[in-house]
Write a structure and sequence with these properties.
This protein is of the alpha/beta class and about 260 residues long. It has helices at about 40-45, 60-70, 90, 95-105, 120-125, 140-150, 155-165, 185-190, 210-215, 220-240, and strands at about 1-5, 10-15, 20, 25, 55, 75-80, 110-115, 130-135, 170-175, 195-200, 240-245. The chain has an eight-stranded mixed β-sheet. The radius of gyration is 18 Å and the shape is globular. The structure holds iron/sulfur cluster. Iron/sulfur cluster binds next to loops.
Length: about 260
């Protein structure tokens, strides 16, 4: 693993998902096989494979302090091309420092992580009335998680984390994205533990070889995502869980 401390020029960047994104790190120790952020290798000049390098923006909190004072308030996504609570955060505490600045200025924040380390910062989360914290959980089966996300926290740890955030009064959501095999079993595990769910299909081809190796090609087709998505929406309705779907649930043959 190549860890490099770097000095960034800015940290509060425009985003297509929310108004802004803050990435205290570039690169991610979780190394998920399907990760869309691997395109960052090109921009950073790293030769190492995705998941084997992290650039640590050691001046991120200093930059953010200045940028928050100058820019128009908007919702900030933490983070886009890294997990803000990847293991290095335990040592560097950059995500925590950046979040404290955003909360102090009352900016709306959406945190997205796969890690129970997020619970370390419950004390500062309680300072914000404009915070949502999302855990990404992509399958209910930890063997399948191990295949696609071998270096990310277990499903059990993530379920415990989301339940704990919710119990502590934090607005909490689970991002079931991408929907991996056996994701549908998550719905009953999450009922009562989240404010809402977001579903999205696999939109990238980086993990195609894994699907082929395991004979799971039929679990990444348009038809599969339409059928599983509809059954998950139905299960949410039955269990009273709010559910947002980020892709079309029409059967491919129903498209105009
Ligand atoms: S945790 Fe997120 S950013 Fe990190 S490798 Fe996985 S998908 Fe990519």
């Amino acid at each position: 693993m190549k860890i490099k401390e770097v000095y960034a020029k800015s940290v509060l960047s425009k985003s297509k998902i929310y108004d802004y994104v803050v990435n205290p790190y570039v690169g991610c120790q979780h190394a998920c096989s399907y990760c869309y952020a691997r395109f960052m290798r090109r921009f950073t000049g790293h030769q190492e494979p995705w998941g084997r390098f992290v650039d640590v923006k050691v001046n991120a909190p200093d930059l953010l302090r200045g940028e928050v004072a100058k820019k128009k308030m908007g919702t900030v996504w933490v983070s886009g091309v890294c997990d803000p609570y990847q293991p290095l955060e335990a040592e560097y505490r950059l995500s925590r420092k950046c979040l404290a600045i955003l909360f102090r200025h009352d900016w709306p924040v959406v945190i997205q992580t796969r890690s129970p380390l997020v619970l370390r910062d419950l004390d500062i989360f309680k300072e914000s009335a404009k915070l949502r914290v999302g855990l990404s959980i992509t399958t209910a089966n930890d063997e399948i998680r191990r295949v696609f996300e071998p270096r990310a926290p277990s499903i059990a740890e993530r379920l415990k984390t989301v339940a704990s955030l919710h119990r502590n009064g934090i607005r909490t959501y689970v991002m079931i994205a991408p929907i991996l095999p056996e994701a549908e079993n998550l719905i009953r595990m999450l009922a009562g533990k989240v404010d809402y769910l977001i579903l999205d299909r696999m939109n990238y081809c980086h993990a195609d070889r894994i699907y082929e190796r395991h004979g799971w090609q039929d679990r990444k087709t348009d038809e599969y995502f339409a059928r599983v998505g509809r059954s998950m929406v139905q299960a949410c309705a039955e269990l009273g869980v709010e559910c947002r779907v980020a892709y079309s649930l029409d059967r491919p043959d129903e498209s105009p």
